[in-house]
Fold this sequence. Notes:
Layout (H helix, E strand, L loop, with lengths): L1 H24 L5 H19 L7 H10 L11 H18 L1
Helix pairs in contact: 1-2, 1-4, 2-3
Amino acid sequence: xxxxxxxxxxxxxxxxxxxxxxxxxxxxxxxxxxxxxxxxxxxxxxxxxxxxxxxxxxxxxxxxxxxxxxxxxxxxxxxxxxxxxxxxxxxxxxxx
Length: 96
């Protein structure tokens, strides 16, 4: 399953990057705090589902709305951009 492969590739990195990006960029980009909350919810559901496919349509729909379909702001670091890229890949794999 594509989603499980992409999850295995990105979950650990997202767990490391999301809190740091929220701390560094949360002041100028308060929407990232919501992105982090949604990622935390997605991560929890993925872990609870084990090898099954969790229900994440609502979370990904909210992420697409908050991030304007994962468009990276101009004034952020590479880690911020990486988080959006990995979340977009997870979203795409989930929908596949």
